[in-house]
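Q: what does this look like with pyridoxal-5'-phosphate bound?
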Amino acid sequence: MTTKDLSKALPEIVTEQVPGPKSKELLDRRNAAIPQALCGNTYPICIKQGAGAMFEDLDGNKILDWVGGVGVLNIGYSNQEVIDAVKAQADKYFHTIFNVYVHDGYVALAERLNKIMPCKGDTMKTYFANSGAECDENAIKIAKAYTKRNGVICFTGAFHGRTNLTMALTAKKTYAVGMGPFPSSIYRAPYPYLYRAPKGYTEEEAIQYYIDELNKIFDEGAPANEIACMLVEPLQGEGGFILAPIAWVKAIRKICDENGILLIADEVQCGNCRTGKYYASEYWKEAGAAPDIIATAKSLGGGLPISAITARAEVMDAAPAGTIGGTFCGNPLACASALAVMDIMQRDDYAAKARHIGDVVMNRYNALKDKYDVIGDVRGLGAMIGIEFVTDRETKEPATKLVADIVRNAMQKGLLLESCGFASNTIRFLAPLTMTDEQMEKGLEIFEEAIKEAIA
Ligand SMILES: Cc1ncc(COP(=O)(O)O)c(C=O)c1O
């Protein structure tokens, strides 16, 4: 099958079950060659080729991908224009180390991001790293350099990566078992998870509760004048696809302004057109609460490793020479890919695609919620949607096993899903924004069948 045909194909399982024999063989080789920690059995899938929102496994099964490399594939698999841009760059040179000498892709990409990043201020500067964890670390370095302070506030449910600093910032400690010691001066406040706010609170009261809890850090953790920054995901990914309400964002912006603290938006997963704007922080900026620094990665490079850190020039220029950069940061192939991705996303209005997909999926998920008591909450923004399953709507007990069953059932029918949240009881929707309406419809059908089977 050509990639062109695959991009329009519908899910189809041709083997008795997934994995088929060829995939099983590769999985056996994987298990022998790779550390066990990377050999989970939830997804026994081995890819042969991908196109648009679809991929084909080694046995010819065609699978619709609603995980999208956990937010990397907003542009879909194998976009020909991106392939051509990377090939053209590969013909010229693969690598320079930007700390030593300059290539124009790095500068051009920084200029493009400086124009569109909705940070606080007028004149932006950007530099690059390789991964989500690295851009978060770098955003904190910049905040420390600018404020000359070292405290960092992070939130419950947060995921920021697997380096030593970002493991400390990440909430779920299964990501950090036995990996300490961790850096000090990190303080955690509750993220405004409205579905699980204290019982009986109105939205307004709940937001005030979360702000009061945050303010306690300044009494019980460290004085505000020792805090460099707060690191916030505008829409939490791993934590369960939870949207920070704008009223809460405005309140934390105010706390930051009153105390000389920098507000960092971690747009690693929610950036690059996913939420219906190019960056989710545009919603914050429209409400007068723009972040000081934005860190983004994943779909920025469309599959090649690159991440970006952007802030106003005055903040960025505070970092002493030598403290930022690195061998592969802003690699020419990754910059060429990111530039092509941005051309396409702006030209073809991927933010509008996210809004369209988001409308359809959100409506259908809400209809499913009316039908099935096991669905406790449907939430999100644009095409970043979470559907949370519970065993009881009153107690909100997480339906962890049910979700694992739904994910497994869907995979056997050709739909790739992934859970998230503190109890892995939320299913995330991160389909490539190139998904056709027909594929979306088929995916929604499979999703409902998978729920029905799991309940039965
Ligand atoms: C919000 C957020 N920040 C940071 C990261 C870490 O990114 P990476 O795995 O590229 O280091 C992730 C990864 O899922 C993420 O979702």
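Residues 70, 131-133, 136, 159-161, 233, 237-238, 266, 268-269, 297 surround pyridoxal-5'-phosphate (CB under 6 Å). The chain has two domains: 3-78+350-455, 83-347.
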